Amino acid sequence: MSLFTTFTLPNGLQLPNRLAKAAMEENLANSDQAPSEQLIRLYGAWATGGVGLMITGNVMVDRRAMTGPGGVVLENDAQAVQFERWAKAAKSNGGQVWMQINHPGRQMPANLGQTTVAPSEVPMDLGNFSKQFTPPRELTANEIEDVKNRFIHAAALAEKFGFDGVQIHAAHGYLLSQFLSPISNKRKDQWGGSIENRARLLVNVVKGIRAAVRPQFAVAVKINSADFQRGGFSEDDAKAVVKMLNPLGLDLIELSGGSYEAPAMQGSARDGRTLAREAYFLEFAKDIATVATVPIMVTGGIRRQAVAEQVLATEGISLVGIATALALNPNLPDEWKQGQASVPELRTIKWNNKVLASLAYMAMVKYQLNRVSQGRDPNAQVSPAFALLQQQVGTFFRTRQYRKWMMQE
Ligand SMILES: Cc1cc2nc3c(=O)[nH]c(=O)nc-3n(C[C@H](O)[C@H](O)[C@H](O)COP(=O)(O)O)c2cc1C
Question: pTM value?
């Protein structure tokens, strides 16, 4: 099957091709933590490049809980116009746009100055970098209910603003993923223990959203195929979660892997298990797909057309998710379609410190997003040190702006 055949979602709507831009946090919100002109321009560029589905960078469902400064927050319709323009720009060339909605839980930078909450009081373990994160306070039962309602409300607003769907972020060690993992979830109540309990919040969020939106509005989930941490969320857990999600009317499950503590989504699993150099999670996905009745998308490491085709040729895989390569070249889908052998690649980072290398990787990709958002061409040759430094400076100012905004509200 070609990457350029249409795909009909369970909701009956069609995607023009099998290529999806996976979520990438852009840090391009304006001073109201709403979509900025730059963010809107960035999605216009991806639309022009021909990708069939754009999943936005994660949008925060609670202003007090941010994955980083410069993040888009969606709690009400005060910024409706900017959200509508964002959706419209993304859809301008016939592709769909789904908003990714997220709550960071304990993966929130300490210098944002907020109280950090999580399923349990388990602090982040990032060696010398652990103090970048405040040890979390355990969520109360009422607060868990509030989190669920916030996800549902954000999804309903996304529908109102013209997005074609939402993706619930339950991967990469953020709050819903913290609930799923026995390492971060030590609860003794109905939210912890068995995989049914650990998945309860995710399941309730999915059910709540599906009940609140039109049947044609796509609802998707991103989960880890595994956490790549001993004693963490395992592949068997992932299979069990997929089985629980099967009957809930989802349109897509995206499989990724890892967290801040073990960034497998960047191609390196800390526990020493070898991952493929490209299409990192394909083997896991092949196995997990055997129990799924919902279409599956695999993301991670895909930058060559031949690999994308191999992913799509895999039994049970319907869509190919691409993040980094589409930041480096928003026109990749059209170029592949026209037969060009484009292979966007960043410079290799040769640093020994794994945490710094991971931060530099993110910074190098965000550097591209920033350039495209300004109408400039990406620059794959940017040095890790330069991108990281620029990112740190930007983070400093965005953090100040966020804290000011929180004081005003
Ligand atoms: C700069 C950057 C920001 C990201 N932000 C998000 C995000 O907001 N939500 C998410 O689910 N994944 C996020 N990811 C992970 C990607 O969606 C993807 O899973 C990962 O980068 C592996 O795919 P790739 O090798 O094609 O980049 C981000 C990745 C990068 C590089």
Answer: 0.97
